[in-house]
Design a protein that fits this description.
Residues 18-27 have a biased composition (Low complexity). This protein is α/β, with parallel strands linked by helices. The protein has helices at residues 76-83, 105-114, 122-125, 132-144, 150-160, 179-191, 209-226, 237-243, 261-266, 271-278, 312-316, 318-321, 325-330, 349-362; strands spanning 30-42, 49-61, 65-69, 91-96, 99-100, 115-118, 197-201, 229-234, 246-251, 254-260, 345-346. The protein folds into two domains: 30-251, Rossmann fold; 268-362, no CATH class. A seven-stranded mixed β-sheet has the order 6-7-8-3-9-10-11, sandwiched between helices. The two termini are 31 Å apart.
């Protein structure tokens, strides 16, 4: 696996005048969390119900970056939208600062000022008729109305996002900017409200490789300077390695492995995580794992372990030799705790049996 990027980007934002860096040391209690979260959608013209999020516990502590990774369609964007209050859970709960999220208009407006979204496509999220100044000031006007320090707040946000001198960008339009600059404008639009949490959905997916490192370094600098907490939604495990403190791997509506990025990505325990890592160019494997078929339809989640129909460990006979093949096909491994005591957790009968065997052998 490649080494992490330097936390200081080439065009990283300057700290606030007179402000001390907030640091990234996470606190013990979660800032944002969900417990036993379920989100379902009824299919159009049918009785089928898609279980997009099917039982998830996830905690984000203040000052940490958590990467939520998985294939397209695994439910990670729906989970992120639910944490933002853009989707209402079918059951379960979302908590912020230990209090349950309310869904009244007033409660959501107050919440979204403190928890901001950064979208993956800056071209689609920026109005081509709005100047950079208006794009960044929009959230400020919605949440705080006309303020005497609006131009200073906009300038500060642009500067922190690496667009300096900020006044040079005030009257420019999105089409006059590069892709990396547009993404920085989107980030500035989130920063102008001085949020405590940002949720970034594939924040560098639409950018050239040469620009991705700058944006990832910017997010790290914002965490270190401002103490921002971030949930980064991505299908790219390489990105997770470079930016995250912890990683949660999601498959078919549920988190199947969670732990520190070093533990999960250096020594993956779930066969799904192993398969995702095996296809990275820097992976130290003889040959990549090719998963059979496509992820199951979320309206027809299989019994037992939801990964068993595609599992290379079950197909190879390893699960049978470990004595857990029947459990893989019939017994649900269950919902993982939010982050428990910090140890890596895995929803896999084979991995858990192997852990017990290794523990007994070393005792």
């Amino acid at each position: 696996m490649t080494a992490r990027l330097d936390a200081t980007p080439a065009e990283g934002p300057d700290p606030r005048p007179g402000a001390e860096a907030a640091g990234a040391a996470p606190t013990a209690d979660p800032l944002l969390s969900c417990s036993d979260l379920h989100v379902t959608f009824k299919g159009r013209g049918s009785r089928a119900t898609a279980r997009a999020v099917d039982g998830v516990d996830l905690n984000l502590r203040a000052g940490e970056i958590v990467a939520l990774v998985g294939e397209s369609g695994c439910g990670k964007t729906t989970l992120a939208r639910t944490l933002l209050g853009l989707e209402k859970p079918t059951s379960g709960r979302v908590d912020f600062e230990g209090k349950r999220l309310g869904y009244s208009t007033r409660a959501l407006k107050a919440y979204r000022r403190r928890v901001q979204l950064v979208l993956q496509d800056p071209s689609g999220s920026l109005n081509p008729r709005h100047t950079v100044y208006d794009a960044v000031a929009e959230g400020l006007r919605i949440h705080e109305g006309a303020t005497a320090d609006e131009s200073e707040r906009v300038a500060e946000a642009l500067s922190r996002a690496g667009l300096r001198p900020p006044e040079r960008f005030f009257l420019r339009y999105p089409h006059e900017l590069s892709g990396g600059q547009r993404q920085r404008v989107v980030i500035a639009g989130a920063l102008v409200l001085r949020p405590e949490v940002i949720v970034a959905d594939e924040p560098v997916a639409s950018l050239d490789a040469s620009v991705r490192g700058e944006i990832l370094g910017l997010l790290l600098r914002l965490r270190d300077d401002l103490g921002l907490t971030a949930l980064v939604v991505t299908h790219d495990l390489g990105l997770a390695w470079n930016i995250a403190d912890r990683v949660a791997v999601m498959y078919l509506g549920r988190v199947v492995e969670v732990g520190t990025v070093e533990e999960v990505l250096s020594a993956p325990r779930h066969p799904y995580t192993q398969a995702l890592l095996s296809v990275l160019p820097e992976a130290d494997v003889d040959e990549p794992v090719v998963l059979a078929g496509e992820p199951p339809d979320p309206t027809m989640i299989p019994g037992g372990c939801r990964f068993h129909a595609r599992c290379q460990v079950l197909a190879s006979g390893e699960a049978e030799r470990a004595g857990v093949a029947d459990r893989c096909r019939t017994e649900d491994p269950g919902v993982l705790r939010g982050d428990g005591d910090g140890a890596t957790q895995v929803a896999c009968h084979w991995a858990r049996r192997r852990d017990r065997t290794e523990t007994s052998a070393s005792a």
